[in-house]
Amino acid sequence: MRYTDYRDNQRKIMQMVPEEFIRRYLLHVLPKGVMRIRHFGFLANSCRCKKLSQIRSQLAMKAPKKEKVIEPLGHWCCPQCETGRLQFMELISLLKIVEREAALRLSG
């Protein structure tokens, strides 16, 4: 794999096993049904705090108090009904997922 090392602006070559390349590539793929959103304008990361403080001052608003909501570890709201709770059961390795996908493609 060729890449540019921006520390010294040199093009370099990295050798790795195919499983590692697939693992790194899949880190950039979103799960099915998830949409990538880029914030821009006053919500962009580079200027969010500064712009929001300007907007609040012009609207004569006080900055909201930051209240941390503590979620129990390993529990999430159900994306389907939004009332139930999902609980973490186990962590599946990436190689198992890739092997399962390959087996499904070969069988179907």
TrEMBL record:
Domain of life: Bacteria
GO biological process: DNA transposition
Domain Transposase IS801/IS1294: 2-48
GO molecular function, one term: DNA binding
Protein known as: Transposase IS801/IS1294 domain-containing protein
Species annotation: Shewanella psychromarinicola
